[in-house]
Inverse folding.
């Protein structure tokens, strides 16, 4: 294999640049020609290919986002768009392709190499790397960017807790997580939140409003000081819009307490939004991205395709799903079809992993509440 391309697609995640850097340096050390594809699948369709040198990646490991850029492509979702992508790869002699992204990007990698679409003239091998701050990619314990995102939320909550404590207020902090509550759960534990609201808990609208109201009222029985602040972390994927939740909480408090105002009964909303995506990646994300890129590049060199490099420190891997990397014992190589199937279960709540996360959080949260 002499020519390998890299693309980043979908939502950006801190650590993508670390993966680009590692893959590029590994390829160049083996006299490969390394190519960057700008702006994801959309750039692939347009032929936006640029050479990558050691100098291009020498000083990018600490940068958030992706130096290759990212975009979503509606054209690529259609067969005609994928045919065009295959033509571009073939015309430029791309023998291997690394796709760094979340579930949509990895699904695109699977579709690009689908046996029922690929002709005999298409010989590009494709390996995926999971990069998603929501940690909603199946068959990997962590995706690139998750650790940084959790730390960003934790730091924001620590800061807002200072003003919340000074005024004894309630803050509802909305974090990203449209289909997965992982960020909310993890940051909730790290920031010692009073409540964490996420879709996977299965709580009804009324149960959530009632439970949070109880927490706010009970906060007035705590000793004065930092402990009187109330911190509620809410995943954006919860069915109740954050502003509506605040409005209903305020109404329920007035109903139960009459005209009493001030103190922790005065609530504020903070929506972190895309702030969570940014920032310099943590050491863990830099290390994990680099190791996954190493495994992915070695898989291409060994002639593998239609796999994802995954972070799986322990446990057996069923052969119908994939196999453990011989180059890094903490990583596995799993089939893209199996990744898609498990990701769908993660998002609809039927995966044992989703259920285990929710159950573990409830147990830990109960301990913290004491």
């Amino acid at each position: 294999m002499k020519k390998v391309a890299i693309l980043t697609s979908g939502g950006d995640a801190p650590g993508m640049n670390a993966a680009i850097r590692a893959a590029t340096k590994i390829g160049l050390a083996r006299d490969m020609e390394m190519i960057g594809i700008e702006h994801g699948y959309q750039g692939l369709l347009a032929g936006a290919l640029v050479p990558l040198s050691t100098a291009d990646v020498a000083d990018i490991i600490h940068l958030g986002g992706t130096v290759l850029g990212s975009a979503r492509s509606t054209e690529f979702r259609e067969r005609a768009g994928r045919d065009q992508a295959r033509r571009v790869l073939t015309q430029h002699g791309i023998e291997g392709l690394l796709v760094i992204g979340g579930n949509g990007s990895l699904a695109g990698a699977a579709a690009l190499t689908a046996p029922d679409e690929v002709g005999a003239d298409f010989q590009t091998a494709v390996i995926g790397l999971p990069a998603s701050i929501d940690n909603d990619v199946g068959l990997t314990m962590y995706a690139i960017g998750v650790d940084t995102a959790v730390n960003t939320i934790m730091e924001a909550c620590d800061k807002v807790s200072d003003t919340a404590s000074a005024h004894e207020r309630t803050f509802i902090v909305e974090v990203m997580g449209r289909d997965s509550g992982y960020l909310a759960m993890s940051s909730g534990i790290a920031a010692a939140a009073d409540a964490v609201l996420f879709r996977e808990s299965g709580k009804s609208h009324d149960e959530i409003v009632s439970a949070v109201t109880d927490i706010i009222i009970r906060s007035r029985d705590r000793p004065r000081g930092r402990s009187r602040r109330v911190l509620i972390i809410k995943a954006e994927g919860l069915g109740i819009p954050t502003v509506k939740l605040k409005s209903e909480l305020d109404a329920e408090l007035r109903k139960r307490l009459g005209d009493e105002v001030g103190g922790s009964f005065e609530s504020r909303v903070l929506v972190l939004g895309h702030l969570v995506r940014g920032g310099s990646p943590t050491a863990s994300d830099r290390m994990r991205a680099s190791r996954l890129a190493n495994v992915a590049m070695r898989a291409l060199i060994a002639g593998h395709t239609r796999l994802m490099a995954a972070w799986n420190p322990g446990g057996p891997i069923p052969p119908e799903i994939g196999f453990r990397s011989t180059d890094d014992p903490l990583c596995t190589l799993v089939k893209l079809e199996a990744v898609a199937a498990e990701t769908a279960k993660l998002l609809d709540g039927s995966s044992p992993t989703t259920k285990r996360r929710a159950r573990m959080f409830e147990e830990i949260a109960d301990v913290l509440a004491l």
The two ends are 58 Å apart (CA to CA). The chain has two domains: 3-145+281-348, 147-277. The first helix runs from residue 16 to 29. The chain has a mean pLDDT of 91.
